[in-house]
Design goal:
This protein has a domain of about 100 residues: NAD(P)-binding Rossmann-like Domain (Rossmann fold, 3-Layer(aba) Sandwich). Helix content is about 30%, strand content about 25%. The protein has 10 helices and 17 strands. The longest helix is centred in the C-terminal third of the chain and has 29 residues. It is globular, with a radius of gyration of 21 Å. Bound molecules: zinc ion (ZN). Zinc ion binds next to loops.
Length: about 375
């Protein structure tokens, strides 16, 4: 019997099943052979009728390895950099994150935390926790530190004023123990503010974005389920906002905050059922569109993040329609897509390879991709997918 990991509810409905999906979307693969040899797993996306949480009921954490070679850095895109710098400004100027000890849970390379500490006259200090962190242990005369561990109750003596965690909780199959552990870690700092960012599953379902369901994201929230999950772990929600073109949730809570009613969400079960009903037709339409483009010349996908690598694996597993994936991140260029082994290239190679059409995987990047193509005087046509 499958129960909802957030509310323990038993009214849960599977709406999307796929076998043999690559377990990693952001792994750097050095060769086509190693890319094709990555672990696979089963996707059984399931929605809870009680709290709206969406989860992969067939998820197996032991199949993943978030170690060396994992790279989901998006900071090479001007649009994304502007988004993050806006987020930093909002935290300092509007949410009053000043003269604070900030803990970041899952800090990655530490760029976001560095921005909060470096913000002019903010007086902030930061400690980033991430088992996969690889840089220096201290920076900025000790105002910024990094710990290669998970953050938990053993760090309660730190007395954090603010905890930030971006794009971590969707990778965690049991979110409630994670949040309860966070509450214990903050037992010595009862006034601490907590900020989380995670994908908004209602956006994926409403827009029927088939390639936004992939193995790494085993736990997906909407405005209702995230509020419920935090309340259950003793963090009454303070505010939820839809950000990044409504693709992400930005969620604020405080340990002893006032309880508020969660905002009304879309009917996630109905959305999920519609998604499931339309899945085959959407796949067929995507394949036909791709085949029509491929008849006119070489086709690329723009964006080798999770969306692009998932699209490639479900629409072109045998590598007959897509020539390559384009990505601005130099670490990804000259590498291969986990699962299918498609080449990942720099935009500079569009002309050399003779790519006629590039399908944009995330509509948020349309303006900057168009500008880049115009700057290169490329005749490659950008195709919007919707
Ligand atoms: Zn539930």
């Amino acid at each position: 019997m499958i129960c909802c990991p957030v509310c323990d509810g038993k009214d849960v409905f599977p709406f999307l099943s796929r076998d043999d999906v690559p377990v990693h979307q952001n792994l750097l693969c050095e060769s086509e052979a190693s890319a094709r040899a990555v672990n696979t797993g089963r996707l059984q996306m399931t929605v809870c009728a009680t709290c709206s949480f969406v989860f992969n009921a067939a998820f197996d954490l032991s199949r993943l390895s978030y170690g060396e070679g994992y790279n989901n850095c998006q900071t090479h895109s001007p649009y994304f950099e502007a988004y993050v710098s806006d987020l930093t400004r909002g935290l300092v100027e509007e949410s009053g994150v000043r003269n604070a000890l900030i803990v970041e849970v899952g800090c990655g390379s530490g760029d976001f935390l560095r921005g909060l500490v470096n913000y002019p006259d903010s007086g902030n200090r930061g400690i980033g926790f991430d088992p996969a962190y690889t840089g220096a242990a201290t920076e900025l005369n000790g105002k910024l530190r990094f710990v290669k561990e998970y953050y938990g109750p053993e760090h309660a003596s730190l007395a954090a004023d603010v905890v930030v965690s971006r794009h971590v909780i969707e990778h965690v199959p049991q979110p409630i123990p994670l949040l309860q552990s966070l509450a214990k870690a903050l037992s010595g700092s009862s006034q601490a503010k907590v900020f989380f960012e995670t994908p908004n599953v209602d956006w994926i379902l409403s827009n029927q974005v088939v390639w936004d369901f992939f193995y790494e994201h085993c736990s997906l929230f909407n405005v209702r389920s995230i509020a419920y999950a935090f309340e259950r772990a003793s963090f009454p929600p303070k505010q939820t906002k839809l950000v990044f073109g409504e693709q992400y949730l930005w969620f604020e809570a405080a340990l002893n905050g006032t309880k508020t009613s969660p905002a009304a969400g879309a009917d996630t079960v109905a959305l999920a059922q519609a998604f499931g009903r339309n899945y085959e037709a959407n796949m067929k339409r995507a394949k036909q569109t791709l085949e029509a483009l491929a008849r006119k010349g070489k086709v690329a996908l723009w964006g080798a993040g999770a969306k692009g690598t998932t699209f490639a694996s479900i629409i072109d597993a045998d590598k007959t329609l897509i020539d390559c994936l384009i990505d601005l991140n130099p670490d990804k260029q000259s590498k291969y897509v986990p699962g299918t082994g498609h080449a990942i290239v720099s935009p500079k190679e569009i002309g050399v390879r003779g790519v006629k059409h590039a399908i944009l995987m995330n509509p948020n990047y349309a303006a900057e991709c168009r500008a880049l193509l115009a700057g290169m005087k490329s005749d490659c046509e950008l195709v919007m997918w919707s």
